[in-house]
Amino acid sequence: MQVPLIDLKAQYAQIREGVEQAIREVCDSQYFVLGPKVEEFERRIAEYTLASHAIGVSSGTDALLVALMALDVGPGDEVVTTPYTFFATAGTIARLGARPLFCDIDGATFNLDPSAVADLLGAHCERDGANLVNKRTGGRVRAILPVHLFGQMADMDALLEIARGYRLPVVEDAAQAIGAELGDDRRAGSIGDIGCFSFFPTKNLGAFGDAGMCVSNDAELAERIRKLRVHGGHTKYLHDEVGGNFRLDALQAAVLLVKLGYLDRWTQARRANAARYGRLLEAAEIAEYVTPPLAGEGRHIFNQYVIRAERRDELRFSLADEGIRTEVYYPHSLHEQACFANLGHAPDDFPNARLAAAETLALPIYPELTTEQLEYVVARIADFYRS
Questions:
Q1: Which phi and psi angles does 310 have, rounded to 5°?
Q2: Distance from C-alpha of 278 to C-alpha of 284, rounded to nearest angstrom
Q3: CB neighbourhood size of 23 (10 A)
């Protein structure tokens, strides 16, 4: 049996007619950059995420970049974040001349550990007038950037309490978490000062290329992001500041509008598959892997279904031989990347992140995954460990 990691062709078969009609509408209008389709998509995303404002941008990476630009993060600054995430989270910080200030993750949820953040800020930072200064580096700590990894929200209440105590804004990297919720129905992206989404094709809500979104409940921040995405000006050829070309294409917005109508049913299918995995893996009674925990009463949307596995790489190769595609998110913690060697971290500085990089494995979880395919995956995992 063949089990791909994700099957976008199966998804497209459900929505082909609607997508092709939406694309024809854009082609007939010849309005390809920003415009009515983008504005409609922004309104729908604002409603879906429970945010007051949504600003369409060119990618999830650019959403993070423009969010930090809107907060005036720049050279000499530092942003608290996780070392266990996709590169763009820390890469955008560095791209602005700032430094990522890494804190370890919670070993169960893989998300930024609030206690690690509190310890770092309390022990290593001090207030110097309006600035919070890292005593070791002299850098100004300017923001906290948690990631809702794999579709489960970070402990936002604890992180927000820390942020308020130190007067720091919070940027949510919700690239993998559209529709994820805390137990009181607050949704990813709308809780901090700015939320950033990616619509990369493999996301739960994926475009036909790159696309992203910033959301905020702060009208001034939202307006500044709108200006920054078009080279820092509201009026053509007049620029108040240096921004960038972070505009969302109308074709991508049109495709995403169609897909948005299916998102909740796709998310429910992912959650049903995750529950089925949990039952079957528990019944297999194999001690060498651990299923992903659910934190509290929130809504995990399972952009990925990630287990911890002993002999992870051997298991992955064995599953590949059986026609099952998996992925490692992420094989290297960011503090070990060559481009961040200047930060001076030792490999064991963030033990939970390093262990996650060595043990985690993402299994197929896409909505169109059949019961037979899922059962086949679990059976082959059990066979591997029993052998």
A1: -70, 145
A2: 10
A3: 16
- Using alpha carbons, select from 337, 366, 336, 151 the residue that is nearest to residue 266: 366
Q: What does the alpha-carbon distance between residue 136 and residue 274 come to, in Å, rounded to a whole number?
A: 43
Return phi, psi of residue 87, to 5°.
Answer: -55, -35
Structural domains in the chain? 8-260 (3.40.640.10), 263-386 (3.90.1150.10)
For the stretch 208-236, pLDDT in tens is 999 999 999 999 999 999 999 999 988 88
Contacts of residue 111, Cβ cutoff 8 Å, sequence gap at least 6: 82, 105, 146, 147, 148, 149, 152, 153, 154, 155, 295
> Are the C-beta atoms of residues 152 and 177 closer than 8 Å to each other?
yes
User: Which segments of 209-262 does DSSP mark as H helices, in order?
Assistant: 219-228, 250-260
Task: Return d(Cα 37, Cα 43) in angstroms, integer.
Answer: 10
User: With contact defined as beta carbons under 8 Å apart, do 209 and 201 qualify?
Assistant: yes
One-letter amino acid for residue 343 of the chain: L
Torsion of CA 117, 122, 124, 126, to 10 degrees: 120
| pTM given for the model | 0.95
Residue 81 identity: T
> What are the tens digits of pLDDT across the range 179-212?
999 988 899 999 999 999 999 999 999 999 999 9
Neighbours of 126 (CB within 10 A): 11
Measure Cα distances from 236 to 221, 227, 233, 245, 377 in Å.
21, 11, 7, 13, 55
